[in-house]
Amino acid sequence: MKIHIGNRIALAIFTAATPLLGCASLSQIGYVPEVAVVTANYTDKYVYYSLADGDDRPLNIGGSAHPFANGGTGGTDCCRAMPNAGQKITVRWQEGTKDINADKTPLLHKTVTVRGSSPPSGDRFNYMIVRFFSGQQVEVEILSEPNGPRATRDPRLDKIFYGQRVMRQIGD
């Protein structure tokens, strides 16, 4: 039976997170409020993922991303409290075809340190980018851009978000 992994992950996140609703756990020290989570996929496979904090508590967020050849991006989830730069985050994902068979596809996971720097205070727009690379590599980075008419794009924001097919390597 084929099950779309997005539904399976969403159900797992909701079930695991229900007891946490209303807790102050996401407002703890080391989190950035109001973060938009975006996905950059530099692989040739579809990716379906969910995020948890360094202690493996679900962050109630996940999604999917197209292969690099098909744009390499997924949707945006805004706005959540997310771990800040220097904090740990766990990424769970499956990769495969668009109609992935979730029961037969291995669930991968890695706990990584969030890259970037703590966003400065003020009128800013904060991003968390979850990047997938070939060889089952993943990285997470937080960055911040000023809001307003004179705002400039952060050069760390991946060019594929602007429709440019520029391949990136882990650590770039």
Q: Would you give an account of this structure?
A:
The protein is mainly β. It has one domain (5-17, 27-162). The protein contains 1 helix and 9 strands. The strands form 2 sheets. Strands 4-1-8-9-7 form a 5-stranded mixed β-sheet, with no helix packed on it. The model is unreliable at 1-27 (pLDDT under 50). InterPro entries: DUF3304. It comes from Paraburkholderia caribensis.
Strand adjacency order, main sheet:
4-1-8-9-7
Oligomer designation: single chain
Average pLDDT works out at 83
Helix segment count?
Answer: 1
- What's the number of domains? 1
Structural class: mainly beta
Q: What's the N-to-C terminus distance?
A: 39 Å
The helicity comes to under 10%
In percent, how much strand structure appears in the residues? Answer: 35-45%
The gyration radius over C-alpha positions equals 16 Å
Major β-sheet annotation: 5 strands, mixed
Given as residue ranges, the uncertain stretches (5+ residues, pLDDT < 50) are: 1-27
Number of strands: 9
Can you write the helix and strand succession as a string?
A: HEEEEEEEEE
Shape: globular
Quick tags:
single chain, about 170 residues, mainly beta, five-stranded mixed β-sheet, 1 helix, about 10% helix
Give the topology, please.
Layout (H helix, E strand, L loop, with lengths): L4 H13 L13 E11 L4 E8 L4 E8 L11 E7 L4 E9 L11 E6 L1 E2 L7 E10 L3 E10 L26
Parallel strand pairs: 1-8, 7-9
Antiparallel strand pairs: 1-4, 2-3, 2-5, 5-6, 8-9
